[in-house]
Design goal:
single chain; 356 residues; mainly alpha
Amino acid sequence: MNEFKSPVIHTEDTMTASALTWSSDAVLRRLRGTGDGLTGSAGPGAAADRAMGRALTGFLDRIAGRGSGPAVDGILALPFLVHGTHSGDPAPAEPAAVAHVLWWVSARYLDDLSDAGPRPSAAADTDSADQDLLAVIGIACHLATEVLDEACRDDPERALRLRQELSRSWHRAIAGQLADLTATAATATAEEVMAGYLGKTGAPYAMAAAMGAVLAGCDEARVDAWRDLGARFGVLRQLVNDQRDISSGRYEDLRNGTATFMVVQYLKSLSEPERAVAEKLLAGCADSAAAREEFAAQLTEPSQLRAFAAVARPLIDGLHASIDEAGGVGEYVAGLHGLVDQTVNLYPEFLLDVRD
């Protein structure tokens, strides 16, 4: 499951109303204007522009239709807050936030495509799918770059640094997604799953944080530090995203046999006989709703949840420590702490914030 199926994080809750100088609505309006403009394109490359415009506006329509617009807040907040810690003004980080959303427009489509299985056989459906695929590639490779270049029109060196962050994100995320596609819950190690998480969800958050730092004028060492923090925050987001799949009762990961960190840690905790039984039940989750319910119940027993919280605690504490170490303008440092805390507590029934 990808980021736009993840929990809602409201920036309004991480910052005071007086300090909040950006909004998800403003970024979404900008993206809507971009999509509408592309849809009406008549210039060179108009066919590509119109396809990208349809894909972008369609994505925004789906967000609005599901009432999930606020889910974008958690994606937008990080670059704004990083910029604010250094400058006291988060607003100039908007290009990084926009590029981050565009990244997820493409990643979400590709993730859904990989989850859907075989391509449709009807010619008309295949043509439509091909057009959508080309459109999201254009959004990822062209449109996001245009946003970054426009933001640094008079500073080509900074524009290059931002483009490098975008390229690095795609490379590492592809590697992480490939690991996710090939791993199985029964055979993957916790270390392998975590490495995949650092790619498929850590990489785009690393990009967002690093871009915020670049736009704030940080030197390479500071950018590196923020990139590392962003990657670890992305891992936390993925852990909570895994929880959402269980909490919602959708059980997509169980049905697909996805090697989530939560499942792998659970299997690791069992004795050999217990694990053999659990793996058989997990295999049955592919076709049986009852098996999924039973496995989810075992996975969420309080003792298992407390054990999982203990494993996740170093990640959470490390994020808070890194935020304090980075320092900067107090209200935005507090906003970063709040962003981590809200992520941790989105599903309190999972006891992720419990300390023994």
